[in-house]
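OP here, attaching both records as promised.
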Amino acid sequence: MIPKQIAIVGGGAAGFFSALSVKEHHPNHKVFLFEKTSKLLSKVKISGGGRCNITHYSEDINSLCDAYPRGGKKLKSIFYQFSNIDTQNWFENRGVPLKTEYDGRMFPVSDQSESVIKCLISECERLGIEIQVNHGVNSLENTSDKWKLHFSNSKPIIFDSVIITTGGSPKSKGFDWISNLGHNIIFPVPSLFTFNMPNELITKLMGIAVENTSIKIEGSKIKTQGSLLITHWGMSGPVILKASSLGARLLSEKNYQFEIFINWIDETNTELLFQKLNDFANSHPSKLISRNNIFSLPNRLWSFLLEKAEVSHDQKWNEIGKKSIRKLIETLTQDNYEVSGKTTFKEEFVTCGGINLDEIDMQNMKSKVSSNIYFAGEILNIDAITGGYNFQAAWSGGYVAGKLG
């Protein structure tokens, strides 16, 4: 095969994996990776609190696809070519062993994102991939089935094929240069954000985490389960981030003004709960309710919920009565809060929206609109719930795009 010049635009997870895949499948091709900023793999660095949630454990491809509100089953073809198991093997074969946590998230054993970054960069260096930072691409110009890349600070360069992996954008204007190629853009809105509750007193409990909760967004079918973190601005944690992903468009339409219901103990059988509390009251009549937290909730939260249920802190179990027990159960299982706004951390921004997948051949990530252009990563209308899934789409999409099929 005649050696070709291949450009990768974007120095994130999908960009690096695209570049590495090109060299794996086409060793003689000359590969250039361009990043518009001075930082490479910035999301990899901060993901998972600096530990890098590389992927998620899933037993089969179908369950893996279920984690993507946008993309879903269309990802099946690329996951069959490069799955989460392939991701694990790829990194472990290059000196980055992974571990699986209780919720299925997979991290490097080192608990350091730097392990992942060093692996990817050293592989690029070993394979002779030329990485250029501070090289933003302003536009692409088609010239006889080749592409001339116009940069913000250097002369144009002509390439045989281009793989675009520049990620999502919070504004549709960020996709204008892609629209100019003839692609339709699904309007972008944020995904994976936390809920602001400026008028709720629960924020005074900032720092408290509850492992097993479930939440429901009022007026929708959105229900999620998982751990919840109370912050000084509202609520965060996997259960909130999942809900924000599933409801990305709906919550945008609501202008991020809505109500949520929280089940602090993730138990829906109210009669069973009533029996449990009533039995405890009968067995320990003289004990203080405030000092006998039978659900293992954080003590400060237990006190807060008792107050909300109008149960006095000096009240004993034999003084509560059946009506108050019912009210306490309602507070524990259907606690409601007003959300007014969101917080999206810039470095971890995930976009719901991007290039319409109907315009991409998902067998090879090739554009159906323009010749010799491929896409991978969040620039596409693909995004997932929290837990390593977004990175998996980037690894898989980059790997398949790099085949240049």
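Record two, same layout:
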Amino acid sequence: MKISIFALFVIVASFISPALAQNVAGEWYGVGKVKKAGDHNSYLSEMILKQKGNRVTGSFNYFYRSAEIKTKVTGKYDARFKVLELNARPILNYLAKNANGADCPMEGSFTLKVTKDGATLMGQFNPIYEYRITCPAIDVKFTKSVPKAAEKTPIEPDDEDTADISVETKKPIAIAKTDTVGKTVTSDKTVTFTKIDSAKRPSIVATSDTSKKAASIIKAPAIKTITPEQEMAMALKIRAFDVSQIIDVDADSLKVSLYDNGEVDNDTISLFYNRQLVATGQLLSDKALTFTLALNDTINEIAMFAENLGRIPPNTALAIIYAGEQRFELNLTSTFNKNAAIRFRKKAKVADPKNVN
């Protein structure tokens, strides 16, 4: 009986496709974006899932502002439609000011897509019906993390197996015992070895043994503790910078005073100078927040990081800056996507010709 190429393809695909579609277990990473007009904080997200049959369990972990939050998830995976349904309760409300803010009971629905470039889960977390007004949906595209294979290292001979062995194939091979230096040739491979001790036999080199040996000698990297300052610096770099032109000043330092620009509406900021944290959790008001900053000989950057958007978005400030006899009034605007930044450069000092001998 003849079978067309297309029919054969369908038969083969029917066996291959379910294998790709059946499993969502693993580590997934993505960025959650709130489906709401305006600038809002994003959810830097990680999902670690386990699957048994169609039942899925695991955790949904995310950074919200400077807080790391972990939420357990449960759900099921429908291999027919490649759809993953999850319950993630709760997820922090998109307007929360800190980790103790209001929560949103959410349900996730994601579609699995597998290509030669990798696997993705695309969909969104949706609020349950009772929270549909206060909790908007969160769009997320998760990408599966595929661990890199450990680099294979040669097996080190032990006390009973001492030989210098060079293998020109990746297939396992047992090396014949000999008392001379020479070559043992098989039908599809060549092995060169040098016998060091005639009383000892050469090792048996196998790919499977090599991978186990390599895995056993790799030590897990030490877990580094991230300080709050480092965490804030990382958050700063995630956002874009709205920078001003470079302002040349004839001074060695700046005196910076920050006020809420307009109605005082609970705008809270962190201040960075040359990407180093100067102050955090600073509430803008009609009273000045004052800082003195030393200028170096390069370009100096003052960046304002919005910790919230206040009652009236965006987060705005009036900066009054003194550089020696010079005075500047600048308006700064920050959002959850962009940092306000102003830059200064100290003028090079020119020698007074009258004082030259």
